[in-house]
Specification:
Elements (H helix, E strand, L loop, with lengths): L2 H13 L8 H14 L23 E7 L5 H6 L6 H8 L1 E6 L8 H10 L3 H4 L5 E4 L4 E4 L8 E3 L19 H9 L5 E5 L2 H8 L5 E6 L2 E5 L6 H9 L9 E2 L29 E2 L11 H8 L2 H18 L8 E7 L1 H9 L4 H26 L3 E6 L8 H5 L6 E4 H12 L9 E5 L2 E4 L3 H6 L2 H12 L4 E6 L12 H9 L8 E5 L3 E4 L18 H4 L3 E5 L5 E7 L4 H9 L33
Parallel strand pairs: 1-11, 1-12, 2-20, 6-7, 6-11, 13-18
Antiparallel strand pairs: 2-19, 3-4, 5-8, 7-8, 9-10, 12-19, 14-15, 15-17, 16-17
The structure holds zinc ion.
Length: about 600
């Protein structure tokens, strides 16, 4: 993906994925901290869902919304700034206050796949945004597919091929189509291929993402004339020269106007307003402009318009079956990587999304009918504070430089006469040894001891697990080790999985080199794992729910509403938020718990 991706892709790789990490104690501490920080229990105004819901045996449309990198506590902290769709979700929906991933690989492809399949990465196999393919001896992205060919709408350009073929289980949308009898349309939009594809699954009618100025799909999904028409009529390049500005008085924003440690995308300063004009001196859309656009509210608005148009053009919710509309909003992630979670940019992006979702819900009320659709909103992962910002609190925070890990391992093996290079790749926090090296290490106690000691000596490393320690999921004990195990997929994950310390950002840049982004995610700590989870609409019992749940519960819960059975789910049905009388074939579900 293009340009934008360029800077943040480095960030993503760096930060990312998870690692393994350390500590149950740390995880519990941060969990407790988050709970304490949450405002005292408030009873949501328990507005009752429209009476039309009970008239339908199942929802006509399922709307899955994923806000990339949205921390759960953004709802608590910023909801006073919202008046539209996000506010409506909180007030009219079922709000799960303690939703968190249970695994370590808190990255985009992993989170979306978990939401869409109801399974953890150890089951669905999407273990990272990209990993080292031992057969191909190359990095592969989670959606790259040698048999697929991407194509761009409206004369745009793209390359490669993408699909969900590496996802080892069907997505909920795949099962909905299959078990529902063919009357289901599956539509998904995002700026990111790995989000749109993992939401839609292996098939889909309109699966669309953004690639450096072009809207793209692949031969696996096929193109849709109505999207071609829309993109031609509404080129995103028309946003060139526009300004992304604050929409509320300055006194309405939390934290400093300029976020500590932030690194603005090329062409931008560290404070509002942000002009979408690309690199200095450019006279039209360039790579920097596409990055800026993707980091602004303009991109969220465009995705929403694409979705509303799909509802109209395909008549979603009107075909007799249950249709599926997935939208993954990527801009919070881009703004978060650049400016961090304590920035005005994050708040402004959410203010814009709140307005966009107000429009989307109004559109669905009018076209599908209030109470005829169900919305689920969550996030694929959270984010760690910018290290320099966190250090101001006196906390132990910093940057773990992955090249130092590689150097320490190579140094540790020097006396043992191993064939070089000993390491094939360090991808995020996963170490992949060259073919044969790890097998030899496993029966060489002195060498493996030296390797592990070397890794643990790198600043920011809390712990390191060997692959074979993660194979037995049920037997794992500590929360961090269990999180690593839930992320571990044999043959695909690394040989060593490094656990950074809490508040340490993982960077693929060498020490001493300035970062080109502010912060990231990809660890088993609660700030990366905890995300919002809200349902609203058909069959949903509004209220606030404080039980511990995971986003893997979303697909089983949707499945319950439409009578779809998932083969390999790790999540459960959130029955406490379902109205007993609207669950399929169950007029007498008296056992459903109330909040
Ligand atoms: Zn990210």
């Amino acid at each position: 993906m293009t340009s934008k991706r360029a800077w943040w892709a480095i960030a993503a790789l760096a930060l990312l994925v998870c690692l393994g990490c350390g500590g149950a104690v740390a995880a519990q501490t941060s969990s407790a901290g988050a709970a304490a920080a949450a405002p005292a229990a408030r009873k949501a105004a328990a507005k009752t869902a429209p009476a039309t819901a009970a008239a339908n045996a199942r929802p006509k449309l399922i709307v899955l919304l994923v806000v990339d990198q949205m921390r759960a506590d953004y709802v608590d902290k910023f909801k006073g700034q919202w008046t539209g769709g996000l506010k409506r979700l909180v007030q009219e929906g079922a709000w799960f206050r303690e939703a968190a991933y249970n695994y370590a690989a808190t990255e985009t492809c992993v989170g979306h796949s978990t939401i869409s399949t109801g399974a953890f990465p150890a089951t669905h196999g999407m273990v990272a945004n990209q990993w080292w393919d031992r057969d191909a001896q190359a990095m592969v992205t989670c959606t790259s597919d040698p048999k697929a060919k991407n194509s761009a709408y409206a004369g745009g350009s793209t390359k490669g091929g993408d699909s969900a073929w590496r996802m080892r289980v069907p997505a909920f949308a795949d099962e909905l189509r299959f078990q529902g009898g063919g009357a289901t349309r599956v539509v998904a939009f995002s700026l990111k291929a790995r989000a749109a594809i993992s939401m839609a699954g292996h098939k889909g009618d309109a699966v669309t993402w953004f690639d450096g100025g072009s809207w793209v799909t692949s031969s696996v999904y096929g193109s849709m004339p109505f999207i071609e028409d829309f993109v031609k009529a509404h080129p995103m390049q028309a946003d060139y020269g526009k300004t992304w500005a604050l929409s509320l008085p300055k006194s309405s924003y939390l934290y400093d106007e300029q976020a500590t440690g932030a690194v603005a995308p090329p062409g931008w300063t560290l404070t509002f307003p942000h002009e979408l004009k690309g690199n200095e001196g450019s006279s039209g859309p360039d790579a920097a402009f596409y990055d800026e656009w993707a980091t602004s509210s303009f991109a969220d608005t465009y995705l929403t318009q694409l979705a509303e148009n799909a509802v109209d053009q395909l008549g979603l919710g009107k075909a007799g079956g249950t249709d599926f509309l997935g939208i993954s909003y990527s801009s919070v992630d881009y703004a978060g990587h650049a400016f961090g979670p304590r920035s005005w940019e994050i708040q402004e992006i959410l203010i814009g999304l709140d307005k966009d979702l107000a429009g989307l819900f109004q559109h669905l009320d009018a076209k599908v009918g209030r109470g005829n659709y169900v919305v689920a909103l969550s996030a694929d992962h959270g984010v760690v504070p910018v290290p320099e910002d966190m250090q101001r609190t006196g906390a132990d925070a910093g940057v773990l430089h992955v090249p130092e890990v590689q150097a320490k391992i190579e140094q540790a093996l020097e006396p043992f006469n191993y064939t070089k290079p000993v390491i094939a790749r360090v991808a995020g926090t996963e170490v992949y040894f060259s073919n044969g090296t790890y097998d030899r290490l496993k029966s060489d106690p002195a060498a493996i001891k030296a390797v592990l000691e070397g890794v643990r000596s790198v600043p920011g490393v809390a712990d390191v697990y060997r692959a074979e320690e993660l194979l037995d999921r049920p037997a794992t004990q500590s929360a961090i080790r269990a999180a690593e195990a839930a992320s571990y997929f044999p043959g695909r994950s690394g040989d060593l999985l490094i656990v950074p310390k809490p508040y340490w950002l993982v960077s693929s840049a060498p020490a001493g080199k300035a970062r080109d982004y502010g912060t990231g995610h990809g660890t088993p700590y609660y700030y990366d794992q905890r995300v919002p989870l809200l349902f609203m609409g058909w069959g949903i019992q509004p209220g606030q729910y404080f039980g511990r749940v995971t986003p893997a519960d979303i697909a089983p819960t949707l499945g319950e509403m439409v009578g779809v059975t998932l083969s390999s789910r790790d999540g459960r049905v959130l029955s406490e938020a379902l109205k007993p009388e609207t669950a399929p074939g169950s007029a007498a579900k008296s056992g459903a718990a109330k909040p």
